[in-house]
Structure prediction request, 340 residues.
Amino acid sequence: MTDKSLIAVLKKFETEGLAAVRDASDLGALERVRVELLGRKEGSISVVLRGLSNVPPDERPTVGQEANRVKEILSRAIVERESSFIEGTSISHEDLTLPSRATWEGAIHPVTQAVDEISKIFRDLGFTRARGPEADTEWYNFEALNTPLDHPAADEQDTLYLTDSVLLRSHTSPVQMRTMEKHDPPIRIIAPGWVYRRDTYDATHTPAFMQVEGLVIDEGITFVDFKATLAEFARRYWGPDTEVRFRPSFFPFTEPSAEVDVKRVVTRQDGTREEMEWLEIMGAGMVDPAVIENAGYDPERYTGFAFGMGPGRIAMIKHGVDDLRRFFENDVRFLGQFTS
Ligand code: DAH
Prediction:
């Protein structure tokens, strides 16, 4: 028999079978119908399934599927009809003995968690949140920040240019100038956001990553405010026993500039305390008077400090992750460890 006619036969079994099930007047009659249709030896459907080996191989899947579909429909109809005979009983098709499915619980990405924790600490210290565009101009990314375009950082090797003078910001520092243009002092902001660089993707670099920028401008802001604020942040983030060190450094937009290191003290389960090694957590400094002047403020009247940190790096240190790429691969086995 060909594929087409077998399928027609199966359809006939289906219609006639369903009618026979409906017409069965008691459990005994229903059992006879069942044997006739689905009985293992002589049941009509079983005969078709057994004969599949005679069907040409390329037609077998279609016929097989159809036979199984009809078998399934007839079995269900029989079970339903059976339950109508058994008063007060209802038969459920679900297998209540199966274990339930595990539920999936969403969680906040570890880098976002770091941004949120950093933001909360600065919010408690009186900072608000500012934003700036990810595609920005050479002026905001470099020149306004006292960085001449022949500075190595402005090199096309490091920066992703979109047109001659428009680029993907290579740091969040342009938000400093964009904020100062819009607001008068006092300014106390943080600006978390994505930044882009032409970096090779490896264990410590990605071409896109997060930074959190900070800027404080007011009358009478001194180096003491700068050190005290960042040390307070470090203790709130890393723990009250954390030591903070300001190491001289250079950034074109700050003078003097510093790199801020922390030394954590961890308490082991047996109560012993261990001092960890110094780790660099951010670049910072007193805002260069040239930047204050570019903003249109009087550098004789206003001073301030700025800082920039990488929450990805901070999350790595915090959780002991040795490869930054883990944060980007979105492997739930990895990310699932950071549910809080
Ligand atoms: N923009 C610097 C970078 O991406 C980080 C930085 C250093 C930001 C010092 C600052 C700062 O605001 O004062 O490497």
